[in-house]
Predict the structure.
Amino acid sequence: MDDLRQKYLALVSGAGDEATLEDVRLAALGKKGEISLKMRELGRMDPEMRQATGAALNRLKDEIDLALRAKKAALGDAALDARLKDEWLDVTLPGRPRAQGTIHPVSQVGEEVTAIFADMGFAVAEGPQIESDWYNFDALNIAPEHPARQEHDTFFMAREAGDDRPPHVLRTHTSPVQIRAMQAQGAPIRVIAPGRVYRMDMDQTHAPMFHQLEGLAIDRDISMANLKWVLEEFCRAFFEVEGVELRFRASHFPFTEPSAEVDIRCSWDKGQLKIGEGDGWMEILGSGMVHPKVLEAAGVDPDAWQGFAFGMGIDRLAMLKYGIPDLRAFFDSDLRWLRHYGFAALDMPTVSGGLSR
């Protein structure tokens, strides 16, 4: 017993790191350690010898275990002291100033919806904000007498007297981007078109310049069922709720046939919007199957291809998701508002990692 005590106490004392100390512990007290093997020999002894030897072995085991714990604590303290010396920090030095800028909610929501539709295989298409009358209206099957083509609803670019060229407008929607994308790529195609649009309207929920996102999917066997699935998956991901219920109401848009307004089930609880529950319905977007005349204008054969399109307001989505009551505040440049509703510069939304804060 004395030889074992001196042997292992010396090894414990001489251990210079925790790895060496663990080797000593295993050699002494592990399942196949020297003291553990001695404990197994107790069964072959007579009762008196077993009682005396067992008590001595237990005392030895406790003494070595206590020495191991004390040595481990001493090694930990020494390592901490060395680390503190190497990582010395003067806490009286001034801290780094926090960045003042934030990401605007419109920009953040634009990134969120783009990430969701990219996950479903939609590419991003872009186009000019100043469009010809043909791309903005004619190619989309909007008749000359349609109210949207009047000056009280659309910003027309000024022309000199006698200029007979087709008029240009500030685009009233991002649908012209769909025409340009189909002309450039043909079918099949699956794109979204986010961007600024302009209309003569200004109140608590409307602005003369706002942001819109439109989607287009053209293939041989696409139906309204595909449209419904895409919109349900989008709403589920964007509002970050599992239960989503959409309601399609028959409507009319010149560029889709059939057309449908889409409502989402919701409730208002103490002024807070809750998506996917309750007895209320809220309109969130318009959609439908692309009109054959629109496909023809874009150079796509309507007898061979078909598809769906949808459009939604990015600003309105931001208001709904983040509880922003007035659309006009988006463009007031109030720093207090921007600090409250803004997002951190590195808060990049992803479908897998989470969209919002």
